[in-house]
Amino acid sequence: SYDYTKYHTMDEISAWMNQMERENPDVVSSMIYGQTYEKRNITLLKIGFTSATPKKAVWMDCGIHAREWIAPAFCQHFVKEILGSYQTDPKVKMLFENLDFYITPVLNMDGYIYSWKDNTTRLWRKSRSPGTGDCTCIGTDLNRNFNANWGKAQAVTDFLVAHQNKLLCYLTIHSYGQQILVPYGHPNISAPNYDELMKVGRAAANAIKAVHGKSYKVGTPPDILYAFSGGSCDFARLTGIPYSFTFELRDEGKFSFILPEDQIQPTCEEVYQGAMSVINYIHDKN
Ligand code: 0X9
Ligand code: ZN
């Protein structure tokens, strides 16, 4: 069976996605919503009970940045956990009844594959599209281009705008730093529901800490990381999705992007509780 305590190649993850769909036809369907620069299909798993009435939804993407391998590992863990518990855990069952999960395990597929190529490419961050103008450089930072309309960020932009009315929550999974970031990346503007976002973020950090004792800081990027523009989390909030969070997973810098495989399971366990804390809050409020 699939080993969730190891990092997997894109081919393995694609096969795993097919398997999830095949084994859970009642609650999982896949959906292609864009193409990468290298012409791969960007695919999400839609998870939840089918319903005659329209449902609200939760978005989760992993692997915007190629080298952050723990992020796709988390998306896979999350899918495994909810599929393994919705029949027995009444809380997860209720989520399946009232919400759809839209989960993209690897958004930047081209970059992810490139980061698997060899030791010299392991730390690749961006997409693999060529730069514009006369620059010969390759790669677009997909988390700086959510207001400019190019590359792969476009597929997510289109999806979020098209589904904006039903999306309650946008979660984007990154590493590293152990942080829960709330909008915005700009130092002088704050979200209209900033206080509530901080409250929900702090509750998630407490849920994380309760699992293995790890501390995750909560705040806006300028307050606890650095100011920047064009992040997906900002775009989601600006578009009208009320709850938008960036999770920066382990660690705090010792191994940074090369998080050892023996930390996959504990990291995923704690962040699962953090994400569920956010999702349950949003579910109960709506
Ligand atoms: O710089 C980034 O894109 C993210 N950090 S990373 O080291 N994973 O590259 C931070 C994204 C935070 N985004 C918002 N909260 N807007
Ligand atoms: Zn990142």
How does this model look, in words?
It is a single chain. 45% of the residues are buried. The protein contains nine helices and eight strands. It has 286 residues and is an alpha/beta fold. It has one domain: Zn peptidases (Aminopeptidase). It binds N~2~-sulfamoyl-L-arginine (0X9) and zinc ion. This is Carboxypeptidase O. The active site is at 248 (proton donor/acceptor). Belongs to the peptidase M14 family.
Structure at a glance:
It is built from 9 helices and 8 strands. With 286 residues, it is an alpha/beta fold.
The secondary-structure element order is: HEEEHHEHHEEHEHHEH
Radius of gyration: 18 Å
Task: Give the proportion of residues in helices.
Answer: 25-40%
What bound compounds does this protein have? N~2~-sulfamoyl-L-arginine, zinc ion
**Structural class designation:** alpha/beta
Cross-sheet strand order for the largest sheet? 1-2-4-3-5-8-6-7
Number of helices: 9
How many angstroms separate the termini?
A: 37 Å
Average pLDDT, rounded to a whole number, is 94
Count of the separate structural domains: 1
Overall 3D form: globular
GO biological process, one term: proteolysis
Active site: 248
Family: Belongs to the peptidase M14 family.
Domain Peptidase M14: 6-282
